[in-house]
Amino acid sequence: MAVKLFAAIDVGSHDVEMCIYQIASKSGIKLVDRLKQSIAVGHESYTKGRISYEYIGDLCRIIAGYAQIMKQYNITDYKAYGTSALREAVNREIVLDQIRIRTGIDVTVLNNAEQRFLCYKAIAAKQPDFSEVIKKGTMIVEVGSGRTQLSIFDEGQLQVTQSLKIGALRAKEILLQMRPDETQEHAKLMIEEIVDRDIQSYKRLFMKDRKNTTVTLIMTGICAPFIRKRAMQKMPHSSFMTIEEFNAIYNEVLSYTAFDLSKRMDISIDYAYLMLPSVMIYKKIIALTGAERLMVPGVTLADGMVSEYALQNKLVRFDHDFNADIISAVRSIAGRYRSNQKHARSLETLSLAIFDSMKKLHGLTRRERLLLQLSCVLHDIGKFVSMSDQADCSYYIIMSTEIIGLSTAERRTLANVVKYYHEDFDYEVLQDEGVERRNVVAKLVAILKVAGVLDRSHKQKIGTIRCDIKDDKLVITSDTPNDLTLEQLMLPSRAEFFEEVYGIRPVLRKKRVTAKN
């Protein structure tokens, strides 16, 4: 295969970075060039809630320069993502429009869950033994500019992930408001108060019932590359570091002013200011988890962007199943709301069998198949809040919950599928979704409603099924020995919407078992 060049542009809270990568099936992913320019859009976004026209102009000039460099490399494939600074700016649509008009570059704003999932893919791509590491208790800690993400893995799968609204740049803004006569020790105490509040809440909600210990803590985020660089002076060929080695760096950061630290660590003064809150957050989480060892892979969002591109275009292969992690994280959410997981597993088996038999009729992708599976897992979470209004409650729970790996649009599709599984489909309410997205919701809801009838008793009477399209019917055949009278009687009422969407009517048949002589 020919070598492919790809550009990843990260419009961050603190700077704008472009990385150019070379991708080949044999040699994998290699960094060719990296450019970075500082611009404090996060300062404006976090303190004022918007980005000024002056900063918009600076952003456009930087990105236009990157666009010219892409032309010099003859790069046509790129991704440009914005993170929390753009995400939290009330005028983000104006900013994105100006960038598009003045540079020709389309910037997509990631939600927090998408951003963290890209980081996770970057670790899996860069760390050859990643799948082995996460077989035992592992937590990925990403200390970003505006947020800190904690993701717990065990037995090779993601168990739970949660975002805390504490980050290095947010903490830095507090430090900059201190009086000149206030000491470094006072700064330390102020940050501890901020961090402790959210860390203790996380511990109470997500660590209380965990039986397995955290063996490995994987440190990523805005200052992690500088920690890695410092640690690599003693361990140049390893991504791992000991707790003692981290403590030495921690004590060094606490012992110097930002100005002195920038000279000692050969980093900009802006990043030197971010080091103190970053190492303090890491320190608190190390204490919280009791981690035995630390890993600092040194990945960036751009590394995640190229990993995702290479995966989607089948240019490289990773051993790890990322979709399985999304499903695992969603099962954790369902467990939190006391969902009936036996019934949910049955819905998964039945829904996916119907989906797979109808590829020519629905024209949907494997991504929509995943959304159907997730809707099965979350189908009844609204009951935790209200038995009588579970449709709307399910919708609001899903829309209020970060689901790692899903875009905001995908999360809304998932929420609508679960909602209309319990209610009659409303075309008018979903008009704002657009025709294509509304049709996706309708197709998935129709399948889920039929699958729901097949396990109406919640007793899993039907195991596997065979689905065949014959004439104007979807013939669903089961070889179960159980009585299916209830399911056969109820199917026609739920089949009306399915027939409306697909133009065929589902029928349930029981396979005859021939007696042996």
Structure write-up:
This protein has 517 residues and is an alpha/beta fold. The protein contains 21 helices and 14 strands. The chain folds into three domains: 4-110, Nucleotidyltransferase, domain 5; 128-296, Nucleotidyltransferase, domain 5, CATH 3.30.420.150; 322-510, Orthogonal Bundle (Hypothetical protein af1432). It is 52% helix and 16% strand. The protein has a six-stranded mixed β-sheet with strand order 8-7-6-9-11-10, sandwiched between helices. Strands 3-2-1-4-5 form a five-stranded mixed β-sheet, with helices on both faces. Strands 12-13-14 form a three-stranded mixed β-sheet. A hairpin with a 2-residue loop joins strand 12 (466-470) and strand 13 (473-478).
